[in-house]
Amino acid sequence: MTGAASLGARAAPSTSKVEVDISHRYGPLVVHEELRFSVMENEFLCVSGPSGCGKTTLLDILAGILQPSEGQVLIDGRPVDPKRDRISFVFQEPSTLPWLNVWDNVATGLRIKKVATPVMRRKVDEIIEIVGLRDYETYYPHQISGGMKQRVAIARAFAIDADLILMDEPFVSLDQPTRERMQREVLHIWEHRRRTVVFVTHNLEEAVFLGDRVVVLSSKPARIVAEIDVPLARPRNPLSHEFTHIRATCADIMHTLGVRPPRNATIPKVTS
Amino acid sequence: MNGGPVKVSGDAGKRSARLAPAVSSALWNAAVLCAALAAWQLLTLVVNSRFLPGPVAIARAFVDLAVNGDTGGRTLWEHSVASVERVLVGFGIAVMLGVPLGLLMGLYGRVYANTRVVLEPFRFIPPIAWIPLAIIFFSGMTRFAFLIFLGAFFPVFTAALIGVRRVELIHRKVALVFGASKGWILAHIVVPTVLPDILGGMRVGLGAAWLTIVAAELAGGISLGLGRMMSNYAELVQVPQVIVGMILIGALGFLMNEVLLLAEKFLFRWRWQVTL
Predict the structure, then answer these.
(1) 3-class secondary structure, A66
(2) What is the pLDDT of residue B18?
């Protein structure tokens, strides 16, 4: 179920890029219980859920840097492998390398992937142009603002032809106006460089504004309680009737999580 | 500084109207040096003893030693070269062994934790305490290289060891997600993070190296070296020549330190400049 028919101008994503089927425990703590979902090629998928529901852990597993207790993540039908697959990660906290200037930071992924120098130069220059950092290429991270640092991290993620881009609440530490601008910018970049994106956020407004689809997780042990299509053309207007309706639907689902567990769920502690 | 959206040194604009900070600092240092020399000369005029030579007497001794050499005909230049050579060899070995060992033990904490009972006590044996053994076991360059190595190794080693702990998980994760190998992470994440600590450790190690060389040369057994020269003139109770040696040691150490500082300035342009 992708809601592809109502996605307007862009081509309908038809093939599944990422298949997730995992359960994960951390010691006696069940983090994810039978999480099963797929991400379509070039889809912008948002994952939302109450804080502490293991969203960051999920991204580590999707990136292939953490092994789930059970099950696996498939990219193009093969188990995820960061050495072979091209995976990008935009972290919540500042992750620019302070000893490299903006240009070299953006080039990091291409360098690790051993992309030939002329190709690398062209790709870095292109993405820097798109994110509007042309004038700041030679600046070091400590010389630019937090929002710009995050823009560098996003450019770094989009610079490689990523099979999968993972974003872990990348705008949570930015102020409201900057966050809204960055959300529009991410969509702008994504429209120029279509990639498969999994974007984690606990902010439903953000999820509905950005995603083709929103997957809502329950609190620990995390399981999928809803998958909601967002069949709205971009740019979306958060004040429109359809937008607020979808947002309210998501919020309803989230709010009932604590008291009304989903079918067959065995949630040990119910806090009222 | 390439003036940015965030101003790095807050008073850069204010200063441009006046002297460049480097020039003003150099002028101040020159003035302080002249004042110190003048005060010293004045003091010798008052005290007037052959055991307290003034700057003029020392300058005369300096020229004499540089041109005619010491009692054995060895010039100041030869003594200096001998000492500097020893320092560079011992210090170089200390850096070449201390940095990789420190990194290795920092990265594999177990190795350090399980061997520290042997490693750590060595740190507290001053290099000077090794001189008697070194005299028995080694001669010539080997002896000096060994002693200086002992002095310079631990500051460098410890700096690298502790610096590794500064590597941030997030930076390692950035590389891991892109599929970087261990070697790549070492070269491009660990080394750039630890390098400032290593340079700091090298400056401390260099100080220790000079401390050791003079002590080792004073212990004798050789005819060249600034320490040797000073000890010869001390036996002859010729104070100016002794002081020439002292000043030269200070100046050479200072110069080497300046070279390292320059390297730091160049290598770590990316760092914050902290001012109070």
Answers:
(1) coil
(2) 65
pLDDT digits (tens, 9 = 90+) for B148-201: 999 999 999 999 999 999 999 999 999 999 999 999 999 999 999 999 999 999
Interface residue B251 vs chain A (CB under 8 A): no
Is ipTM over 0.90? no
Residue A55 is classified by DSSP as H
CATH 3.30.365.10 fits A4-85+163-256, yes or no: no
Of A63, A88, A144, the CB nearest to B5: A144
Q: Domains along chain B? A: 69-267 (1.10.3720.10)
pLDDT of residue A2: 42
Q: Note the Cα A246 to chain centre separation in Å.
A: 19
pLDDT band at B17 (very low <50, low <70, confident <90, very high): low
Residue B190 CA to residue A106 CA, distance in Å, equals 19
Place of tokens 């660990």: B190
CA nearest A83 in B: which residue?
B179
In this complex, the residue of A98, A112, A139 whose CB is nearest that of residue B175 is A112
Domain regions of chain A by residue span: 4-85+163-256, 96-161
Instruction: Verify whether the Cβ–Cβ distance A85 to B2 is below 8 Å.
Output: no
CA distance A23 to A223: 9
Give phi and psi for A35, each to the nearest 5. -80, 120
How far apart (Å, rounded) are the C-alpha atoms in residues A219 and B104?
A: 41
Q: Do B176 and A82 touch (CB under 8 A)?
A: yes
Q: Which of A262-266, B158-162, B269-273 has the lowest mean pLDDT?
A: A262-266
Average pLDDT of span A74-95? 93
Residue B161, Cβ density class (10 Å: 0-12 exposed, 13-18 middle, ≥19 buried): buried
Given pLDDT bands bounded at 50, 70 and 90, which one contains residue A198?
very high
Specify the pLDDT at position A182: 87
In terms of Cβ atoms closer than 10 Å to its own Cβ (0-12, 13-18, 19+), residue B81 is: middle
Q: Which residues of B touch A112 (CB under 8 A)?
A: 175, 178-180, 184
